[in-house]
Design brief:
heterodimer; A: 15 helices; B: mainly alpha; two-stranded antiparallel ribbon; two-stranded antiparallel sheet
């Protein structure tokens, strides 16, 4: 097999795996900040228990996120050395900024968040929780800035030619605030908030179904439901803003997303569909001219199609981009419907009466995870064949010193390690959830009785 | 050429990245060393105390390699690209070590079964030792140079990295970190474990002294390019002399029960070692065995001066911040380890 495919598979695999954890940390962090703030404000012990319980889950997630993240940082150099030489000046500075301004903050205060309960005052502990969460959000900023620069390069010029060509910064802030940064960060942040929030919702719903820790779970469910509703609605707008940037700056990606071939015609917007790559046409159910309306404000206006690009400049996995994008949108819509319906029931005072709804929520942790993953695939596969859009092709970005056997070796190694890691993660997460928020020693007093009293009232 | 305080940006970045990696060796060095010593503790309680001694800080310590990697990428992309793609297999093993170490620490305490804890203990000790050893192997090869052509692309294979000098360097690094880790653990323990550790400090110090002597002789005999600067400026001999004094001071402070000073002494030893390597390498960063003209230097491998300038501002803002809250975290957890409900 050729090195390019192998290196791409390896990168895709390691980053997809990594991308499970940081969004969970960010979102869970946000939930923990709110819970701990409630504890500080009300002084009720149950909020302290709640925070402590989710901190333990957070520790598990954070550890794996860091370990797999370090892999990513070095993989640019090991597998994509030519790319690293080309963009080091620009991309490297964003990565370095992430290390010094964000990662150091979150990892530094993590120690206090996990082990500082009896060492610092509740206020300092709360600030630590807040700083860890802010740190993880800053991390997202710099990583998404670096990636956005690959999507919509700005603030640079090219020096040298051929193998010696290099991108150099001309305007740092133009690089940071490149045309897609802000929209993409908002989109990624909201996706991350949803990941963590739906984890809390899932765990709470699971306890409610099992009739355990009822008062605890009702409280945590409500906190996270508010957050989930706001975020899933906001995501609708953020996603739309992000799509508009794609329309303006990455027309080939947009055309792939909706399977639009003929550039002289208005473009449809599909609900579901299928791209026939042999015949260069798309079949499906959708709004005729919908994409034209969204991007140009007119159902009749033509939109740049895939035929406007040389075959070499088009993403190859068209169906993949199409399907992942539509799956992401569908999940987004479903989350909006689900949270709004739950809010409606809450308003009517019947939120916890419907078991089937709690069943859906118990499994709902998968929704944002899946949406994050497929959204990321859309963004990255849709960018192909470019690693830096319009500047550097993926096939030119490889390490020349690395042979296929070495990549196969590391790919097998990481697949093996990550499968073990994931199985253990699920096993321990499940165990922590089963164990519940209360420690064994005080099981005989309080919780069980509170629960009984609670469910009777 | 842009300068700051009379020193050009490239040299500043060489110094800064050198300082970050030194910080990494000092900070992660002690928790890696503690990990390498882990299996020498026999009792479950001793192992838990040793683990919780590094518990609140190991994650923060690892930040330094992330900052180092990012700075190298941004400051010297050519070095970052050539180094990492050349050392592909060692780095992949290093990363595997990092992953296994993180999860051993995190997973060990989650189950009470004996076999479970034993398994993670072994995993933790092996991955910690592997990381320390590989860091030394990589350094050993960087000192010797690699088969790198005019295009700065490595032309060789993984077996190039397995040679007596780099193995020696790997063991020396492991010994250094074990000594450093033992001293850290002495600070954090009491009673019988403490007594046991004072013996470990002695043994690991002896181990390190033997290794560093062997490595030094080997370097002087077979790698004359690593002594050129020192021959030209004999005043530099003060550095190895200070290093000997620092090592001697480690044992002196331990017998006086001044652990913090002992720890500072071993940190000074690490810094001086790094300074020695840096002095002899500069202005080169990655040597080519093929032709000295192909060396990657701070000048032909650096980013644009604009990027270096921007990043100097980052460093000026960021480094004091990081040092500030690292100090705060260490200060919060000062004193002997006490196990509680949130412990590993």
């Amino acid at each position: 097999m050729n090195v390019e495919i192998l290196a791409r598979v390896q990168f895709a695999f390691t980053i997809a795996f990594h991308y499970i954890y940081p969004p969970l940390s960010i979102g869970l962090g946000l939930n923990m900040v709110i819970m701990e703030a409630m504890y500080l404000k009300t002084g009720e012990k149950i909020y302290e228990k709640m925070t402590k319980f989710f901190v333990r889950i957070f520790a598990l997630i954070f550890g794996i996120g860091v370990a797999t993240g370090i892999v990513m940082e070095f993989e640019f150099g090991t597998n994509w050395a030519t790319y690293s030489r080309y963009v080091g000046d620009v991309f490297g500075s964003a990565l370095a900024a992430e290390g010094i301004f964000a990662f150091a903050l979150e990892s530094g205060f993590l120690g206090i968040l996990l082990f500082g309960w009896n060492k610092v005052s509740p206020k300092v502990h709360f600030i630590s929780t807040l700083l860890v969460t802010l740190g993880s959000m800053f991390s997202a900023i710099w990583i998404v800035v670096a990636n956005s620069w690959q999507q919509t390069p700005a603030g640079y010029h090219i020096v040298g030619t051929g193998f010696n060509a290099r991108a150099q910064i001309t305007d740092f802030w133009a690089m940071v605030f490149n045309p897609s940064s802000v929209q993409r960060i908002t989109h990624v942040w909201l996706g991350a908030f949803l990941s963590g929030t739906f984890l809390v919702l899932s765990i709470s719903a699971y306890y409610l179904l099992k009739n355990r820790y009822v008062s605890f779970s009702r409280k945590s469910f409500k906190i996270s439901l508010v957050l989930a509703t706001i975020c899933s609605l906001a995501q609708l707008f953020a996603g739309h803003e992000s799509a508009k940037v794609v329309a303006d700056y990455q027309p080939a990606k947009l055309a792939a997303i909706e399977g639009h071939f003929d550039g002289s015609k208005p473009a449809d917007m599909y609900l579901i569909g299928y791209i026939d790559q042999k015949k260069n046409e798309t079949k499906g159910i959708g709004i005729p001219g919908g994409l034209s309306f969204i991007t140009k404000g007119d159902f009749k206006k033509p939109v740049t199609g895939l035929n406007n690009f040389k075959p070499d400049d088009r993403p190859h996995a068209l169906n993949f981009v199409f399907q992942t994008y539509h799956l992401m949108v569908a999940i987004g819509m479903f989350m909006i419907a689900l949270t709004l319906y739950a809010c409606f029931l809450w308003w009517r005072g019947k939120l916890f009466n419907k078991r089937w709804l709690m069943y859906i929520f118990a499994f709902s942790v998968l929704l944002p995870q899946l949406a994050n993953q497929v959204g990321w695939y859309t963004a990255e596969v849709g960018r192909q064949p470019w690693v830096v859009y319009g500047l550097l092709r993926t096939s030119h970005a490889l390490s020349q010193a690395v042979k296929a056997e070495a990549v196969v070796f590391s790919l097998i190694l990481f697949t093996f390690v990550y499968i073990i890691l994931f199985s253990l993660f699920i096993y321990l997460l499940n165990k922590k959830i089963k164990h519940g928020p209360f420690d064994e020693e005080n099981l005989d007093h309080s919780p069980r009785h509170i629960e009984m009293a609670d469910s009777l009232s | 050429m842009a300068t700051f305080l009379g020193i050009d940006y490239q040299t500043w970045w060489f110094l800064l990245i050198g300082a970050v990696f030194t910080g990494y060796i000092i900070l992660d060095g002690f928790d890696l060393g503690a990990g390498a010593l882990h299996l020498f503790f026999n009792k479950e309680d001793s192992r838990r105390i040793a683990l919780n001694a590094i518990g609140p800080v190991w994650d923060g310590n690892e930040v330094w390699i992330v900052i180092g990697g990012g700075s190298l990428f941004a400051g010297f992309p050519e070095v970052y690209a050539s180094l990492l793609s050349a050392f592909y297999v060692p780095f992949m093993l290093f990363l595997t070590g990092i992953i296994f170490r993180a999860i051993s620490i995190e997973f060990r305490s989650k189950e009470p079964m004996k076999w479970w804890r034993r398994m993670w203990d072994i995993c933790y000790a092996c991955s910690s030792s592997l990381i320390a050893f590989l860091l030394g192997v990589i350094l050993g090869n960087v000192i010797q140079g690699i088969n790198m052509g005019a295009d700065h692309v490595f032309r060789g294979n993984v077996l190039d990295f397995v040679n007596p000098y780099s193995i020696l360097m790997g063991i020396t690094t492991l010994a250094l970190m074990m000594m450093h880790g033992a001293i850290y653990l002495v600070m954090k323990t009491e009673n019988r474990l403490y007594t046991k550790l004072t013996i470990m400090v002695r043994d690991t110090t002896i181990f390190f002294v033997i290794m560093i002597l062997l490595t030094s002789f080997y370097t002087l005999l077979y790698l004359p390019h690593m002594a050129i600067t020192m021959r030209r400026y004999p005043v530099m001999f003060v550095i190895p002399v200070m290093m000997v004094l620092a090592i001697a001071n480690v044992t002196r402070q331990i017998t006086k029960r001044k652990y913090l000073f002992a720890f500072i002494s071993s940190a000074v030893t690490i810094s001086l070692l790094m300074v020695l390597v840096a002095i002899e390498l500069y202005p080169n960063m990655l040597l080519s065995k093929v032709n000295p003209a192909y060396h990657l230097t701070v000048y032909n491998a650096s980013s644009s001066e604009k990027t270096l300038g921007i990043m100097l501002i980052f460093a000026a803002i960021g480094v004091p911040l990081v040092v500030g809250y690292t100090t705060f975290v260490f200060f919060t957890f000062k004193g002997k380890v006490k196990l509680d409900e949130m412990s590993y």
